[in-house]
Fold this sequence. Notes:
The protein is α+β, with helices and mostly antiparallel strands.
Amino acid sequence: MQKLVECVPNFSEGKRISVIHKIANSARKVKGVRVLDVEWDKSHNRSLMTIVGAPEPVFKAVFASIKTATKLIDMNKHKGEHPRIGVTDVVPFVPISGVTIKECVVLSNKLGKKVAEELKIPVYLYEAAAKRKDRVNLAEVRKGEYEGLKNEIETNPNRKPDYGPSKLHPTAGAVVIGARKYLVAFNVNLDTKNVEIAKKIASKIRERNGGLPAVKALGFKVGGYAQVSMNLVDYEKTNFDEAFRAIEKEAKKLRVGIRSSEIYGMIPLEALVRQIRTTFKAIGFKSDQVLEKRIFK
């Protein structure tokens, strides 16, 4: 079986398209990888790309993209809706085929060490790569964001990074690196400009408040309207259609409609298959019934 790993680095730039393309092109130059997707959002002032290939080429491509982003983005000038602590905010490795989550943890540590030593950027490890229980959850690592971490990293021993100096890089801040399962980034845009409604709904549906399992959610104002922004960290526990219905239910209680929804980045085919099963009660429907999958198998 071919060894394939996915990496989805997120960068704190969603407005300067030329900068986003330069970062992506630095990854594309590495032989043996494919940059499958590049997306950005101006309100969040954030972009991401999906890199796939064998572990070593992906490792090289990701480091190249981090190096380029460090040269082109200054956190002191960054403003956006999305939480962040650095120029390269978060770098997750995801096993696809012939690769275990443990191998992705090894990659995370290897990259963390290289970023810290060569770029002098403090690195925190999260999810399966976390060295401490309180750093498994990305939200905990990003607490206080860039502005808050600036002081905390130097004064609070609990904020000491896993690799690198206990001081933010002067322009690049810090970076979070780790290994995890597939994640579905899903946003629901509400038909209201009142961001407090989005925050209220997000609070209701997220797992840590007793809501949907494996759902992280925040409320933002995007393009003038309120948005419930979610990370579905295990689509087998809660898929995007289930999250949509939960938001729809809460929105109705607050007499608010839904304008649209969007999937940010790429998702596995199995998430779509699962959605068809639940929505249409298509018992026994399998991904092998998708024509293109059989053709290109």
